[in-house]
């Protein structure tokens, strides 16, 4: 049997959640059955080297503008030179360029992976999504709420599939905690809250800062580690300074080794107003940390309250504080929640299961 040719198209190969999931998937496909290649629409990134090490061809198109006809033409040429059996696109720009680059009558199966409940999209972007439904054979959402969002947009239910993200087993080295904290001038006796993610408005990091400050008033051993970078970083640092929180709120910036810092943490916080399926939340659970997150559908899919952590309303820093105070005062509770979250990730959200579900879908498309 000839191997099925799968081309993955994504805007970049930066070190971020969708790029990580794509790389895990492409590098773990059974090669006797599937022949993957990857196209980065705008630029490459760290994952390009991982793909190259796995002998997966990578092409960078070099898109420069939102509407770049030269990039569209080059993408069309690339798809003609290396025609796939399945074109699997990730994130909005790749969805649009990829589906438009293929003639409507093409026999290529077109799969799109939506990674978020995209309430951030402008009207024109939602219009584009609707217009391209006829050019979509399958839509994959990484949580039921993502699938529901696009079904309400008009995607037929029979073309929608839910394939959750996978997460690596994470064995944190707690013996490194003192060294990690000392590098930031934090005493080993501190109670450490960890947040990992892009510093963008949807992440509501200001709520994290307010919650940590409120908790610090009654539990002065509290410190907050904010790991990540993004457009809100300067404003957030200025806000922390304006409320005299510099001594207990630490901005670590982007870290290639972000998960290493989970070893320094006692609890993980996520205050996002919307998500798809948060990789950072899953990694914290895989590392055995109790979690306090916002009560949005994707987080409810991962966290059952009082089983793996707690959920609070969006925009409720007091809720973050109150639940975390319980964890500080009841170490046994924190250990129970952390262990339960770790078990859930190890049994229900493995990379192997994520790959298996994609392979099953690809086989179905090949046979149809």
What does this structure look like?
The chain has 368 residues and is an alpha/beta fold. The chain folds into 2 domains: 4-165 and 351-367, Rossmann fold, CATH 3.40.50.2000; 174-348, Glycogen Phosphorylase B (Rossmann fold, 3-Layer(aba) Sandwich), CATH 3.40.50.2000. It has helices spanning 17-28, 46-53, 69-81, 92-101, 123-131, 144-153, 177-182, 205-218, 233-242, 279-286, 297-302, 317-329, 331-348, 351-367; strands at residues 4-10, 34-40, 58-60, 86-90, 109-114, 138-141, 160-162, 191-196, 222-227, 249-253, 267-270, 291-294, 309-312. The protein has a 7-stranded parallel beta sheet with strand order 3-2-1-4-5-6-7, with helices on both faces. The protein has a 6-stranded parallel beta sheet with strand order 10-9-8-11-12-13, sandwiched between helices. The mean pLDDT is 94.
Secondary-structure-derived class? alpha/beta
Order of helices and strands: EHEHEHEHEHEHEHEHEHEEHEHEHHH
Radius of gyration, whole Å: 21 Å
Q: CATH topology of the largest domain, which one? A: Rossmann fold
Total beta strands: 13
The oligomerization state is single chain
> Could you say which overall geometry the principal axes of the C-alpha atoms support?
elongated
Major sheet characteristics: 7 strands, parallel
Helix content: 40-55%
CATH homologous superfamily designation of the largest domain: Glycogen Phosphorylase B
What share of the residues does DSSP label as strand, in percent?
Answer: 15-25%
Structural domains: how many: 2
How are the strands ordered across the major sheet? 3-2-1-4-5-6-7
Overall mean confidence score, pLDDT: 94
CATH architecture of the largest domain: 3-Layer(aba) Sandwich
Q: Which CATH first-tier class of the largest domain would you pick?
A: Alpha Beta
Give unreliable regions as ranges: none
């Amino acid at each position: 049997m000839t191997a099925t040719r799968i081309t993955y198209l994504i805007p970049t190969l930066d070190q971020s959640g969708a790029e990580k999931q794509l790389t895990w998937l492409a590098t773990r496909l059974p090669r006797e059955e599937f022949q993957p290649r990857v196209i980065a629409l705008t630029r490459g990134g760290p994952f390009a080297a991982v793909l190259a090490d796995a002998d997966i061809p990578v092409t960078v198109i070099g898109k420069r503008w939102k509407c770049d006809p030269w990039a569209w033409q080059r993408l069309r040429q690339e798809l003609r030179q290396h025609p796939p059996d399945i074109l699997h696109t990730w994130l909005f720009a790749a969805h649009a360029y990829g589906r438009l680059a293929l003639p409507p009558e093409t026999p290529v199966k077109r799969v799109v992976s939506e990674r978020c409940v995209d309430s951030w999209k402008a009207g024109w972007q939602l219009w584009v999504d609707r217009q391209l439904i006829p050019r979509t054979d399958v839509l994959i959402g990484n949580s039921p709420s993502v699938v529901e969002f696009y079904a309400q947009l008009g995607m037929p239910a029979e073309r929608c599939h839910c394939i959750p993200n996978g997460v690596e087993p994470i064995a944190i080295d707690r013996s490194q905690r003192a060294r990690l904290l000392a590098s930031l001038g934090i005493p080993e006796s501190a109670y450490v809250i960890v947040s990992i993610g892009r510093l963008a408005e949807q992440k509501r990091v200001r709520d994290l800062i307010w919650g940590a400050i409120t908790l610090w008033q009654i539990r002065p051993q509290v410190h907050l580690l904010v790991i990540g970078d993004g457009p809100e970083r300067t404003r957030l640092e200025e806000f922390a300074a304006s409320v005299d929180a510099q001594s207990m709120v630490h901005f670590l910036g982007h870290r290639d080794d972000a998960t290493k810092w989970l070893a320094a943490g006692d609890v993980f916080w996520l205050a996002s107003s919307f998500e798809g399926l948060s990789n950072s939340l899953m990694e914290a659970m895989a590392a055995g940390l109790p979690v306090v997150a916002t009560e949005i559908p994707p987080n409810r899919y991962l966290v059952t309250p009082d089983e793996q952590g707690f959920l609070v309303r969006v925009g409720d820093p007091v809720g973050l504080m109150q639940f975390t105070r319980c964890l500080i005062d009841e170490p046994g509770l924190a250990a129970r929640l952390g262990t339960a979250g770790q078990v859930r990730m190890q049994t229900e959200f493995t990379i192997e299961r994520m790959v298996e579900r994609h392979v099953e879908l690809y086989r179905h498309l090949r046979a149809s």
